[in-house]
Design a protein that fits this description.
Layout: H1 3-27, H2 36-45, H3 47-61, H4 72-87, H5 94-120, H6 124-159, H7 162-168, H8 180-187, H9 196-245, H10 251-257, H11 264-276, E1 281-290, E2 293-299, E3 313-314, H12 324-328, E4 336-340, E5 343-353, E6 359-368, H13 371-418, H14 425-436, H15 445-455, H16 457-488, H17 499-515, E7 520-527, H18 530-537, H19 539-557, E8 562-564, E9 569-575, H20 582-598, E10 610-616, H21 625-646
Antiparallel strand pairs: 1-2, 1-6, 2-3, 4-5, 5-6, 7-9, 7-10, 8-9
Helix pairs in contact: 1-2, 1-3, 2-3, 2-4, 2-6, 3-4, 3-13, 4-5, 4-13, 5-6, 9-11, 9-13, 18-19, 19-20
Length: 649
């Protein structure tokens, strides 16, 4: 039988599954009828075709219902179950087949129901409760479904010609059928005791697990980041609305007279409306922040806590202390995630400025994050269910490939080499004919090895030695190339990436702009007073001054994003989701630079002064990264002029 004909049989089994599933969908039956083809092909051809048909059945069904892909693990388990018991000759007699029905019913029914409950439940306890309530009913439906599926597969096997049953087991083999003597040798458990099979199995398992784990971890991190970003956007929208409702000119009256102030009650009612618009909005308040604490403007009541009255002074929360100076100065701060006596919360403060640009107070919302861990747990469970099926499928296909294309050819060649006889010319000719009779056709290095074994063992050994030397030379060249590349792209003084690396990075940004997938911002940092430090304290201190400026930049923006493009110029490239936080990074840079400049304990070359400018890529106006750079440079220059205007020295 050719591989083409065998693939047609597998496709027919797949279509049988899909037709059964369509019948269930059309007539709204409480069954599945999508495993008959899986059981049939697994009993006929073994693990790999059964697992493949089961996997692709769910894959095709997932086109119309994505949740079907989660059930591929159950289909694969059914295939493994059927293939195992087929090897034990259970499908040869109707009596033994009937014994399989309750076991397969219990197996698929339990896992089907568990997966279904986890897909639709919002927490683990609820999933287990629903599982207990619906287990009996589901088991009855599964019994009918699996009885029909197993019996249909059994009768299809009975109608399959014996010749097909015999030859189908050889499909996928890359060599001629083995002699009875060689079969017995291959089945000996102590043959080539350590066995390449065991090593390849471990490699396959480790690589499959590593890939599955990596994808699952990345998916989890993306899910967690996305969920947090969604909440940040929600809270940001709420706080923005609150800011628009507060009249900064009346804040003093609100603090002094409270609810008696004109417009206070109307504004408070509107704030309650905003708070009640989101179930997870736990606290909403408006504070004027001064050195002695929060001066309450508005503080809405909750079910558990009564809000503070206008004019009261509330001590700073521990989670806000590191932003205390920014808040007192009226500067914006990034969102804060805290877990304390008030719960697991996302807090966002937004300043409210008057007409003169002075911050009169802050509007803030505390948003509950309690649901996030539970959603994350359910997401992880779904990932495990999905990747369990994918892992088994990949592992089974990999094992079959390794078995037929590596293990069996290598073991048969080893058997022939081990039993090669040199006693007589006739014996040598017989052994050579035995090796040639293997007819190994893997189309790769195994076949080359087979041909080399027929020619001479000596050529094989010379070839392997040459291969090893070539491998060492390539590895040595790769190490040298990586070292040279690192030197060419790193600034010698500061250790950050240099102008060459920056130019390559901007080339990549330009390509992303052309493809429509660009999302980045550029920050320009120009160090002030470098010449003054050099002239006053010497070039060695000037170098320290420059290095300290670089450390500050790396500390805020991340060393991997920083480039030194000139003597006292640094450029920062931020890509991806962090672009939305760039303004917070710039504010943090300025704040930390101000702290260093005002510190009495630092040396002059440790006090950093630098102008900074930022520009975010705008797909409407920016044609390339250079235009973004120019806007960042212009913003930096404006900051430098402002710093010069504010200087008193």
């Amino acid at each position: 039988m050719t591989i083409g004909k065998f693939i047609l049989i597998c496709i027919a089994a797949l279509l049988l599954n899909l037709i059964g599933a369509s019948i269930v969908e059309i007539f709204n039956l409480p069954l599945y009828l999508d495993t008959s083809g899986t059981i049939f092909i697994a009993a006929l051809g073994g693990y790999v075709p059964g697992i493949a048909v089961g996997f692709f059945t769910n894959l095709f069904k997932a086109i119309f219902d994505s949740s079907e892909m989660y059930y591929c693990t159950v289909s694969i388990m059914i295939a493994i179950f059927a293939a195992y018991f087929a090897r034990k000759n259970f499908f040869n007699h109707i009596g033994k087949v009937l014994i399989l029905i309750p076991f397969l019913t219990l197996l698929s029914g339990t896992f089907d129901l568990l997966i279904e409950n986890f897909l639709h439940a919002t927490d683990f306890i609820k999933a287990m409760t629903e599982f207990e309530l619906s287990f009996s009913e589901n088991l009855r439906n599964e019994l009918i479904d699996k009885t029909f599926s197993i019996l249909l597969a059994f009768f299809m096997l009975k109608l399959t010609p014996t010749k097909i049953k015999r030859t189908i087991k050889l499909v996928g083999r890359s060599q001629a059928p083995l002699s009875d003597e060689m079969k017995r040798a291959m089945n000996e458990k102590n043959y080539l005791s350590s066995s390449l099979r065991t090593k390849m199995l471990l490699i396959l398992m480790m690589s499959s697990l590593l890939v599955s784990f990596s994808i699952a971890l990345i998916s989890y991190l993306l899910f967690k980041d996305t969920a947090t970003e969604d909440r940040i956007k929600t809270v940001d929208g709420m706080v923005t609305v609150v800011v628009g409702m507060i009249d900064p000119a009346r804040v003093d009256d609100y603090i002094k007279y409270g609810r008696e102030a004109q417009g206070y009650k109307e504004t408070e009612e509107k704030l309650y409306t905003i708070k009640n618009s989101a179930v997870d909005a736990k606290y909403l308040y408006v504070y004027r922040i001064m050195a002695d604490g929060y001066h309450v403007v508005f503080d809405l009541n909750t079910a558990m806590f009564e809000g503070d009255r206008a004019g009261e002074i509330v001590p700073f929360d521990e989670s806000i202390l590191k932003y205390r100076d920014d808040l007192i100065a009226g500067r914006p701060i990034p969102p804060i995630i805290s877990d304390d006596e008030y719960g697991y919360l996302l807090t966002m403060y937004k300043p409210i400025y008057d007409a003169a640009g002075k911050c009169q107070c802050y509007a803030a919302v505390d948003f509950s994050m309690d649901a996030l861990p539970e959603y994350t747990r359910i997401f992880i469970i779904k990932l495990l269910i999905l990747f369990a099926g994918c892992f088994i499928f990949i592992l089974a296909v990999g094992l079959a490939f390794v078995e037929n294309n590596i293990i069996l050819p290598v073991n048969t060649m080893a058997y022939c080499a081990k039993n090669f006889a040199y006693d007589s010319e006739a014996a040598r000719e017989k052994n050579i004919e035995s090796i040639k009779s293997l007819r190994i056709k893997t189309g790769d290095e195994i076949e080359n090895l087979y041909a080399a074994l027929i020619r001479t063992t000596e050529n094989l050994l010379n070839y392997l030695k040459y291969l090893q030397r070539a491998k060492g030379q390539v590895a040595d060249m790769q190490v040298k190339f990586l070292a040279m590349d690192e030197i060419a792209h790193k600034d010698a003084m500061t250790g950050v990436k240099n102008k060459t690396a920056y130019e390559e990075a901007t080339d990549l940004l330009d390509k992303k702009i052309l493809s429509g997938h660009a999302q980045f911002c550029i920050v320009m940092v120009d160090v002030n007073f470098l010449k003054r430090v050099n002239d006053t304290y010497g070039h060695e201190r000037g170098n320290e001054y420059l290095i300290n400026a670089c450390k500050l930049t790396c500390g805020v923006f991340g060393k991997e994003n920083v480039y030194r493009v000139g003597g006292d110029e640094f450029v920062v490239i931020i890509e991806g989701e962090k672009v939305s936080l760039c303004k917070y990074f710039v504010a943090q840079f300025k704040a930390e630079m101000e702290l260093k400049s005002s510190s009495l304990s630092l040396k002059p070359w440790e006090k950093i002064s630098a102008a900074i400018g930022m520009a975010i890529y705008n797909p409407v106006h920016d044609k390339n990264s250079d235009e973004v750079f120019k806007r960042a440079d212009s913003d930096m220059y404006a900051n430098k002029l402002a710093m010069k205007a504010a200087r008193t020295d």
